[in-house]
Structures are given as C-alpha cells and as structure tokens.
Design a protein that fits this description.
The chain has about 240 residues and is an alpha+beta fold. The chain is built from 6 helices and 15 strands. Helix content is about 20%, strand content about 30%. The longest helix is centred in the first third of the chain and has 22 residues. It binds zinc ion. Zinc ion (ZN) binds next to strand 4.
C-alpha cells in the first residue's frame, strides 16, 4: 500500500517535496528506514508542536535523498538525508521564535537550529531527532558570513553544517511595503473577522509568503499572519547584480 501520511499533519507529499527535485526531475523517496525516522521525528517533535500551538506549521524541507542533497549543496552529514531532520516555518500568528523556544524548553531533540533571520526571529527552524543514539539536545544558530556559519548557542560537541535549499525557495517570496494611514491589522487567518495578532505601521517592509483571495500571508521580524492585500504595495523584485 502506498504511504500517504508521515503523521497526522504531515502528508507524504509534504515530507518529500523539494522544488529542486521537481525542477531537476529527481526522485526523492525515502526507503523504509528513512521513512521510519521521519515518522518518529514527526511523532516526537512535529505533532507535539502542532498540538501545542494548534495552528498549521509549514514544512519547508524534510527528507532529501543523497542525490538531491548533493544537488543543493547540502552537507554530507545532513540529517535530512536520513529522514531525521525537518525545516519548519510558523504560520497564523505564531512566530518561528515561539516554535524554537517551545522545542528547546519542552521537547527532546538532537539538533535545533535558529536559521538566519534576526535576533528576534529566525527565517525558519531546523530540528532533528534520532533513534540511533542519545539525542544531543544541541542548540545552534546559523548566521551568514559569506557562507553559512553555525554557532553553538548552548552545550554541544560538534557543529554539523547543512546548507539549504530554502535559499532558493525563499527567493520566490515577494516583498511589499505597508501603505496605510493608520495601522494595518495582522490577522491569524485570511478573513476580516479573524483574530488580530498584531499591527503594522505605514511603510513597514514585509515578506509575502503566499496569497489567498485578497489577502497576503506575511512575515516580519515580529509577526506572521495575514493582511489585506489592499494595503500593501508590492516591491519590484530587484536584480541580484
Ligand atoms: Zn534543515
């Protein structure tokens, strides 16, 4: 029987999706051992988080075959290749910092990485879990210094670098500027009746992750949520030169 789910809230498709794999027509399918590792990580880390915050959590990258990992320039020791690591992004009024803090304080994990971003909010959270040895509970912070560098935040033994495919997918997110006379409400769902989780001032720069009928799903250093597209001016994508 074909596997359709990794866990209650992660479909097989989400767990194996990769833009690079699609683009390059590469197969990205875990074997039985890798799939078991993915299920265990989901059970021990992802699902408890999902239940605690009671909001969808985006899976940016989960399993990567060795070939795919090589194609994206990932570290040879990346735990994504064994199904032991996942990259996640908060949605609907929850911040990545909240995910990070909750994992650090409440869950068992092998490695937890604050991926780039600012001191207040990482761009995404990488977390791993292993059944092959004692989980190290190592907490790292990735900073850009030409190429990514990982700093140990807390106790830890070695630093395992992993370079990320998300760099490519991040580029696809649009940028915008808030254009309001007063304040723009950030809501936890794309609806004017949804709960307000924050407010943005005029000319605040925002990152737009997705769109839905008149609403933008956005991210700032402080908030993640939805804003009415009417009050956002899109910025032209700048060339990389
Ligand atoms: Zn990762």
């Amino acid at each position: 029987m074909a596997v359709t789910k990794i866990s209650k809230h992660i479909s097989y498709k989400e767990g194996t999706h990769s833009n690079t794999a699609v683009r390059r027509r590469m197969r990205n399918e875990p074997d039985e051992t890798q799939l078991a590792a993915m299920k265990l990580l989901s059970k021990k880390v992802f699902e408890p988080l999902r239940v605690h915050f009671d909001q969808p959590i985006r899976v940016n990258s989960f399993f990567r075959s060795a070939a795919l990992n090589k194609a994206i320039g990932g570290s040879r020791t990346s735990q994504h290749c064994s199904g032991e690591a996942i990259d996640i992004d908060a949605t609907n009024g929850i911040t990545n910092k909240q995910l990070f803090d909750y994992i650090q304080d409440n869950l068992e994990f092998d490695q937890l990485i604050w991926e780039f971003g600012t001191d207040k909010e990482p761009d995404w959270v990488h977390v791993s879990y292993t059944a092959n040895r004692t989980n190290r509970k190592q907490v790292l912070k990735a900073v850009k210094d030409g190429k990514p560098v990982y700093q140990i935040i807390e106790k830890g033994i070695s630093i395992e670098e992993e370079v990320v495919e998300e760099a490519a997918s991040k580029k696809k997110s649009k940028k915008g500027v808030v254009a309001v006379k007063t304040l723009l409400n950030v809501r936890n769902k794309p609806s004017k009746d949804a709960k307000v989780v924050g407010q943005l001032k005029n000319s605040k720069k925002i990152k737009i992750i997705s769109e839905e009928k008149g609403w933008y799903q956005i991210k700032t250093s402080k908030y993640s949520g939805w804003v009415s597209a009417k009050y956002v001016k899109l910025k032209k994508a700048t060339s990389s030169s």
